[in-house]
Amino acid sequence: MKRRIGLLTSGGDCPGLNAAIRGVARAAYEMFETEIVGIADGYRGLIQGDYRVVERHEFSGILTLGGTILGTSRQPFSQMRVVGEDNLDKVAAMKENYRKMGLDCLVTLGGNGTHKTANLLCGEGLNVIGLPKTIDNDIYGTDVTFGFHTAVDIATEVIDRLHTTAASHGRCMVIEMMGNKAGWLTLYAGLAGGADVILLPEIPYDMEAVVAKVAERAQNKKHFSIIAVAEGALCKVEAAMKKKDRLRYREDQHFVTVSQRIAADLQAALGVETRVVIPGHVQRGGAPSAYDRVLATRFGVHAAELIRDECYGASVAMLGDTVGHNPLGEVAGKTKLVPTAHQLVGVARAMGISFGD
Ligand code: F6P
Fold first, then answer.
1. At 311, phi and psi to the nearest 5?
2. Domains in the chain, ordered, with CATH?
3. Nearest CA to ligand 1 atom 10
């Protein structure tokens, strides 16, 4: 029986998306008669009916390619049931286009928001399989997401390169990593890069503790420090506030980024020369690491197996050292944050790294 599979990539891109697309496609072609429909720019293409059949040869040569050959966009889950000025019922449009495409199933490659919409479509009767991607590694139910380890490698290299220049000049380098809610990337890259202070959204910091750590290093004749901070890190005062109050508090402070604030506070408290580095989207660009190529391929192959077995409403996951899956409904809408008592946090503390708490 021929199966027609729809593929879309949604949300922020990451290295490994094309490797996963290739994994699904190649394994599906091997397992059963297949036709693959590529949907443009994530749910935008599904809503607007922007899609085309992708030929088998188009899945070649993309294993190492960064980004996504299908394109992506952010379509907030909160807006999915909202009828906007265009008078379009997005959910009805997605169902109608799924039907028009003659799909047997839809494979969505994305992060938390993508999973929520995938689950919504599942509840509407579509056959959906989710693949977990994000450099944030914050998808519930999987030990790891593809894209994460590549971002860790990139962020670590950034820290490595800053280490030498920080040491030469006796400066404090404040490096801001991506990760608004979850600090996995900062934690891993901070540890791998030998940071002296690691600040995560999950562990509110006290500036006095950060200053104390840098001062202690100076006393020990270490005249430079490396501070790895997640973009979503909060000081203790902010953490105790409601979001609305926090925004006003930051506005009053002329807050730009957390790294700028920390650098300014350090300079003011210790007179130490500071520099801020924000690698930003560099962390999401370019070729996937070997680890992510293998992980994305494994996830893709498992998705093809689920399609073969007509096991829908699932999200592919790494469970221990085995690739398996979770029911979409059990993982969608939950975020995997760094537990404050995580073993890696303990390891970092044992190494004398400060979390500013
Ligand atoms: O979710 C991935 C991520 O890179 C986050 O770490 C970051 O906060 C966000 O996307 C940035 O989004 P955008 O690409 O829309 O600027």
1. -100, 90
2. 3-147+288-331 (3.40.50.450), 149-284 (3.40.50.460)
3. 12
